[in-house]
Structure to design on (149 residues):
């Protein structure tokens, strides 16, 4: 089966229209797209793995650093109450291990909290955030990440 994450990472078929906010030795972080809210980051290993037990110790160490830094960068935004972190890798074409780290806004309606926040990701490109707004947000967020590194 075709791995859409590998095609994204190689640049052959990008998923998001903006550059990554972080590129490390083993991982890349980019904003999810299409989506209806800012602060939806996807943490992707460069190497194709389909289960967490396939990750190396080096990959786990860098992943922990990325998660720590992302959470603290999100925490600097007063509109964010908390962060969610999930890993499934079950959708067709996305068996490649990846993590979603989502900003949970303070004013998020009750019905969208917890796992329901994924509904914010289920929009088509016509309903998605404007690319210019996503670009501006990611540029600011990338600078915030660099300041914490």
């Amino acid at each position: 089966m075709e791995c859409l994450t590998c095609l994204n990472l190689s640049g052959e078929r990008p998923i998001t229209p903006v550059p990554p906010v972080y590129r490390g030795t083993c991982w890349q972080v980019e904003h999810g797209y299409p989506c209806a809210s800012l602060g939806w980051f996807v943490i992707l290993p460069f190497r194709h793995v389909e289960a967490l037990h396939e990750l190396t110790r080096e990959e786990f160490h860098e992943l922990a650093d990325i998660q720590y830094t992302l959470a603290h960068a999100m925490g600097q935004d007063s509109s964010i109450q908390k962060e969610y972190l999930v890993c499934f890798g079950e959708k067709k074409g996305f068996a490649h291990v990846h993590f979603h780290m989502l900003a949970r806004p303070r004013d998020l309606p009750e019905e969208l909290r917890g796992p329901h926040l994924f509904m914010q990701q289920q929009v088509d490109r016509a309903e998605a955030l404007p690319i210019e707004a996503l670009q501006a947000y990611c540029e600011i967020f990338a600078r915030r990440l660099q300041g914490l590194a």
User: Anything to note?
Assistant: The longest helix spans residues 57-75.
